[in-house]
Specification:
single chain; 0% strand
Length: 141
């Protein structure tokens, strides 16, 4: 059962109680006669009409509030789902960026010069080669 229907039932019960009270206080109950004791006065009719109009307006306003709140709840549920999807995508993005950083570190390790590609090693190898060739030439002569 919806919340709005419970409210409507309560209001209808209230209407019935008001109507019964007005009938009881309106005078003695008699079978259909043209007697003035059973008829409502002009003031009672106006009061009853105004009470009914106020209650109908209240029901309309409450129904509109219920519809607005239901639409807000629906929108908040959609927003919650979209936020969850967005957070999931951001977490995937973080994971991919971490993997990319690890790949750049591996690439940097691969591209660094090896021990034999350093200028100091080339200098000493060149010096040893020249010295060795000079010694060999000296021994040959």
């Amino acid at each position: 059962m919806k919340v709005g229907s419970k409210t409507c039932i309560k209001l209808l019960i209230g209407y019935l109680l008001i109507l019964i009270l007005l009938i009881i206080t309106g005078g003695e109950l008699k079978a259909q006669t043209t007697d003035t004791s059973f008829t409502f006065s002009e003031e009672e009719v106006v009061k009853l009409d105004s009470i009914i109009q106020v209650q109908e307006q209240t029901i309309k306003i409450q129904n509109e509030k219920i519809q607005v709140l239901q639409s807000q709840l629906f929108n908040y549920n959609i927003l919650h789902k979209q936020d969850s999807i967005h957070i999931g995508l951001l977490n995937q993005n973080i994971t991919l960026l971490d993997n990319r950083i690890d790949l750049y570190i591996d690439l940097n390790k691969e591209l660094q010069p090896k021990w034999y590609n350093k200028p100091v090693v080339h200098f000493f190898l060149g010096a040893v080669t020249i010295t060795t060739s000079a010694v060999v030439l000296n021994l040959i002569q």
